[in-house]
């Protein structure tokens, strides 16, 4: 098939997923042309552009000339205007270009600026699949919404409260636009059974599960591994991934047996909060940002365990990446983690509170033999059930079915 693929993703799990899914489609002989906005920054090792047939970049400058540049630099960009009229007009032109391109189908990923991309509503007659990583959690979960507003209040973008007020207006309107966008694609793919339940509840239409995967070879050790006395916690936003809960849990362990914590973030921002909490809890902390896949795999392999404390995580790519590296997982018994971690086989599922998390960490840290057994089982489980090849097979089937319809 000739496929048009739209992506405008920030660094993180969704970007890694779109990259590997794209490679899998190319491996099967499909042709891919990428469509992006001019705001799309360099994605390093997760950039599909070198492998694609072509890359078409739409210039997004919604304000005139020097005003556009100055407002961006001053972080005073008026989203209540730029994310609607100008961005919608740009997506309409993109959709027209895609429709005239002779494609068999369109694969659209989420947009960092909006949730679902606007262009989905203007692909009349052209089969399309939207890969929805998650429903807009800032709208559906009060805890995420409150954390978002607290983060925004700490941001230099806030001027006399005006930015907070605008944000509330923007998010409500974005949610309405998102629901309209999602009405239009031929099919929707989601990453887990849990995500499908959330998607159907929020949008009122069905979706097909296309689980994510890993490349086991990319995470396997080339030789003997020397473990550091540390655990990992990965991802952003900081509040959604619950790094502060991991710090609290570690602080409950005796100092003599307490491992250090390494937090890996896809982009800078928020480390000061983590450092303050770690200092108060007596937890040794290292924060890193922007690691490529090779460096990330090394961090997994050298850790005693990966701690997945994010509440209602849609899928949890971190869990299966850790297992592919032979590192056991301690995850909260919620969301997609219930599908990726087998309690007692390759890690532990615990209640989402600090004491239970601390007990799960202690079971691994204090029992090296148990940790090794869990890690080996995790490698085998991932190789059998969680590969990008399986993900690519499923996505290809969804795209082909959409094209037939």
Q: Indicate the overall shape.
A: globular
Number of strands: 13
Known CATH architecture of the largest domain: 3-Layer(aba) Sandwich
Task: Kindly estimate the percentage of residues that lie in beta strands according to DSSP.
Answer: 15-25%
Gyration radius, rounded? 21 Å
Largest sheet: 7 strands, parallel
- Quickly count the helices: 18
Low-confidence region ranges: none
Distance between the termini: 14 Å
- The structural class is alpha/beta
The portion of residues assigned to helices is 40-55%
- The protein's oligomeric status is single chain
The CATH superfamily of the largest domain bears the name: Glycogen Phosphorylase B
CATH hierarchy, class of the largest domain: Alpha Beta
CATH fold naming of the largest domain: Rossmann fold
Which labels suit this protein?
about 400 residues, Rossmann fold, seven-stranded parallel sheet, six-stranded parallel sheet, globular
Draw up the topology in text.
Blueprint: E1 2-8, H1 13-27, E2 31-37, E3 54-58, H2 65-73, H3 79-82, H4 85-99, E4 105-111, E5 128-132, H5 137-140, H6 142-153, H7 162-182, E6 187-190, H8 193-203, E7 208-209, H9 216-219, E8 230-234, H10 238-241, H11 243-251, E9 260-265, H12 271-281, E10 285-289, H13 293-302, E11 305-308, H14 317-324, E12 329-332, H15 337-340, E13 347-350, H16 354-365, H17 368-385, H18 388-404
Parallel strand pairs: 1-2, 1-4, 2-3, 4-5, 5-6, 6-7, 8-9, 8-11, 9-10, 11-12, 12-13
Helix pairs in contact: 1-18, 11-12, 11-16, 14-17
């Amino acid at each position: 098939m000739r496929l048009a693929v739209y992506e405008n993703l920030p660094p993180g799990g969704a970007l890694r997923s779109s990259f590997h899914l794209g490679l899998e489609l190319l491996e099967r002989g499909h042709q891919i042309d990428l469509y992006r906005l001019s705001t799309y920054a360099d994605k390093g090792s997760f950039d599909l552009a070198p492998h694609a047939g072509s890359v078409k970049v739409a210039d997004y400058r919604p304000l005139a000339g020097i005003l556009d540049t100055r407002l961006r630099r001053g972080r005073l960009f008026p989203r209540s205007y730029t994310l609607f009229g100008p961005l919608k007009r740009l997506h309409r032109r993109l959709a027209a270009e895609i429709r005239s391109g002779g494609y068999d189908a369109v694969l659209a990923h989420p947009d960092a600026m909006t949730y679902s991309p606007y262009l989905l509503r203007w692909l009349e007659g052209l089969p399309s699949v939207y890969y929805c990583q998650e429903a807009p959690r800032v709208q559906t979960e009060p805890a995420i919404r409150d954390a978002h507003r607290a983060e925004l209040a700490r941001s230099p973008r806030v001027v006399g409260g005006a930015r907070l007020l605008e944000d509330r207006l923007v998010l409500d309107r974005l949610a309405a636009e998102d629901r309209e966008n999602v009405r239009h694609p031929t099919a929707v793919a989601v990453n887990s059974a849990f995500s499908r339940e959330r998607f159907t509840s929020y949008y009122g239409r069905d979706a097909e599960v296309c689980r994510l995967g890993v490349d086991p070879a990319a995470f396997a050790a080339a030789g003997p591994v020397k473990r550091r006395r540390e655990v990992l916690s990965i991802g952003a936003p900081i509040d959604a991934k619950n790094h502060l809960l991991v710090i609290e849990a570690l602080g409950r362990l005796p100092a003599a047996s307490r491992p250090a914590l390494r937090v890996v973030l896809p982009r800078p921002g928020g480390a000061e909060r983590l450092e303050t909490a770690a200092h108060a809890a007596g937890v040794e902390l290292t924060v890193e940002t922007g690691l490529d896949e090779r460096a990330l795999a090394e961090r997994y392999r050298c850790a005693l365990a990966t701690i997945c404390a994010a509440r209602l995580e849609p899928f949890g790519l971190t869990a299966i990446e850790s297992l592919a590296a032979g590192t056991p997982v301690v995850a909260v018994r919620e969301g997609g983690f219930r599908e990726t971690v087998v309690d007692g086989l390759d890690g532990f599922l615990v209640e989402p509170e600090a004491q239970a998390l601390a007990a799960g960490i202690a079971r691994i840290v204090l029992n090296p033999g148990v940790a090794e057994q869990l890690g080996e089982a995790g490698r085998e489980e991932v190789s059998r059930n969680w590969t990008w090849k399986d993900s690519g097979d499923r996505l290809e089937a969804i795209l082909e079915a959409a094209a037939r319809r």
